[in-house]
Amino acid sequence: ILTDPVFMCGPILAKYLSLPFVFFMRGFPCNLHYEAPQCPSPLSYTPRLFTFNSDRMTFFQRVENVLVSLLERVYCNGFYEDAIKLSSEILKTDVSLVDLMNSASIWLLRFDFVFEYVRPVMPNMVFIGGINCAERK
Q1: Quick check: is 135 in a domain?
Q2: Number of neighbouring beta carbons within 10 Å of residue 60
Q3: How far apart are CA 115 and CA 54, in angstroms?
Q4: Which residue range(s) make up the domain with 32?
Q5: Predicted confidence (pLDDT) at residue 50 exceeds the cutoff of 90
Q6: Where are the alpha helices (DSSP H) in 4-58?
Q7: Domain-located, residue 113
Q8: Cα–Cα distance between 53 and 39 in angstroms, integer?
């Protein structure tokens, strides 16, 4: 199943039918596109979205990074609360957001690694940057 992780219907259906699924995505809030496949993303190095920090942070910027990371988790769990309840009912087991996402077979990431902070990615993550770029006039 080719699916977008913003809408959790694809992963729920794939888990229910025991089918492999592929995420085709631009980005995912809360850094879950690196956490779910277990990519290293240390908070002391990788700045969170909307903090406007660079990869060279002071101590207070790192504390801010950790706090934003905790708030992101609360935000994401609230945003996907209905999907988590639905998946728990359908799959008849308690499921977390990371449980739904970490069983993806392949992650097709629609952004270019050049614009991201340097970090290792898992072998099932493929960068396909440029797919959304329109030709300039």
Answers
A1: no
A2: 8
A3: 13
A4: 2-127
A5: no
A6: 9-17, 32-35
A7: yes
A8: 21
Classify the C-alpha dihedral 29-42-12-106 as positive or negative.
Answer: positive
Q: Cite the DSSP H helix spans in 37-137.
A: 59-79, 81-91, 97-101
Contact present, 43 and 69 (Cβ < 8 Å): yes
In a domain, 136, yes or no: no
How far is the CA of 113 from the CAs of 28, 64, 84, 120, 129, in angstroms? 15, 25, 30, 10, 8
pLDDT score recorded for residue 132: 61
Residue type, 24: F
The model's pLDDT over 51-110, given as tens digits with 9 standing for 90+, comes to: 888 878 889 999 998 898 888 888 888 888 898 999 999 999 998 888 888 888 898 888
In a domain, residue 58? The reply is yes
What is the total count of domains within the chain?
Answer: 1
